[in-house]
Amino acid sequence: MTSDNAQAVPADDPVTVAFARTTAATRWRLNRSIPLRFPTHHPQGLALIGDTIVLSTVEVVEWPVRRPQLADGHDRTPGKGIGHLLLMDREGNLRADIEIGDGTIYHPGGIDFDGESVWVPVAEYRPDSRSIIYRLDMSTSRVTPVFEVDDHISAMVRDRITGNLHGMSWDARAMYAWTPDGTTLARQANEDHLVAVQDANYVGWRKQICTGVASLPTSDGGRYELGSVVLRDLRDNRILHQIPFPYFSSAGHVMTRNPVALEVVNETLRLLAAPDDGNEGSGTELFVYEALMS
Prior knowledge:
By secondary structure, this protein is mainly beta. It has one domain (14-292): Tachylectin-2, Chain A. 2% of the residues lie in helices and 54% in strands. The strands form six sheets. Strands 8, 9, 10, 11 and 12 form a five-stranded antiparallel β-sheet that branches. A four-stranded antiparallel β-sheet has the order 1-23-22-21. A four-stranded antiparallel β-sheet has the order 2-3-6-7, with no helix packed on it. The longest helix has 7 residues, at 14-20.
């Protein structure tokens, strides 16, 4: 990591370049779907690390209950649960299940791998609450709490140039920046109200790709999940590129509902997603889509 004032060449990586070429008309082909035949609970974030995939997920033991009015500043009870980091191979075979969290702070969010460690925000399962930011050392599988935040942090990435961390609150209504030890550098309102961001991954140079969902009413009284993929500049949070992603799982969820990660393989842009919970539809599947660029 270099300081923010250090000279750096703003060269984008292959994922950024490929994603910037996509449009609403881009067709995506389902390359494969990989069933995950182990308890996956309620998946939240994905990180791709060579032949290893890290999936963050929350095992809810007691769901939070909405209150008729605020109590201690909260609109619901904290519930009970267990946070997990599931390490698997590219064929969906479980390698390790690492529990993460502390007491009522049990909800992992979107995660990011910085080349050495996976950064994991774990929060109470309610807005305007509190979080612990953890670091998973991939060489030792050791999880270390790094700092705490007085808000629900739902996703985060690490800037490879400055070393600073960037995160989002519940439904990404606020956007944060911190030093690696947790000093708050910035907090600003998110001007984008299209979708609630659920996961994010760093892409270079100093950008992040965010994915999320909006649940919209339909004319027949049902609901429609609108999915989107967004490229943002980490320096000022500007939206640089945005597309819809209208592809759905066997359980009827849009692919960007929760964990998503993008990569380029043999010059092909791939999007990996695991939108379904373990007790839904066919269970959690890891879907692999490829962009058909023409």
